[in-house]
Amino acid sequence: MEASLADTAHLRIEPWTDADLALLRRINTPEMKKHVGGPESEEQLLARHRRYLDFVPSGLGRMYRIVLLPGGEPVSTVGYGTRTWQGATVHEMGWNVLPPHQGRGIAVAATRAAVAAARAEARHRHLHAFPDVANPASNAVCRKAGFTLLGETDFEFPPGRPMRSNDWRVDLRADLG
Predict the structure, then answer these.
(1) Angstrom distance (rounded) from CA 128 to CA 72
(2) Which residues, at least 6 apart from 176, have a Cβ–Cβ distance to it below 8 Å?
(3) Residues 151, 168: Cα–Cα separation, whole Å
(4) Distances (CA, A) of 163 to 52, 80, 147
């Protein structure tokens, strides 16, 4: 078993680029997408990639590839996008870690780094995450990354696919003490 990456010293989050379509394709598997409606078609995947590329210019979010150091191997993604939920605009965070790298703390460290970047940007009050209640790994990431559980909720992801989720939220303006 490999050592845990307890902090960001062993990884870096880098802004999403056109070259990251290959990483998005590696994530688009039944195993990786089982809690979010299954793999996407090539057309859906290309649309997702274009959204990620447009996040920064449109002001609707940030997407990052996560690379391991020192070599810079891309092993996962983390980011957030703006959406309407329960009649309000929310900023929803999500992540993926390729199977050979799961269970090492990468998602937690990268989520913390992305939260810190969003906090420094000072554009939003909160970030939410809505993992499926049946996804213990993603719920653990939320807990370990400092999110507060607000409770269970009905959520659609992808749009048109209802799921029972936990609503986790982190306050970006909270005193880190």
Answers:
(1) 28
(2) none
(3) 7
(4) 23, 19, 20
What predicted TM-score, i.e. pTM, was given to this entire model? 0.87
57 phi and psi angles, rounded to 5 deg: -60, -35
> How many Å apart are CA 137 and CA 135, to the nearest integer?
6
Instruction: Write out pLDDT tens, residues 73-101.
Output: 999 999 999 888 888 888 999 999 999 99
3-state secondary structure of 93: strand
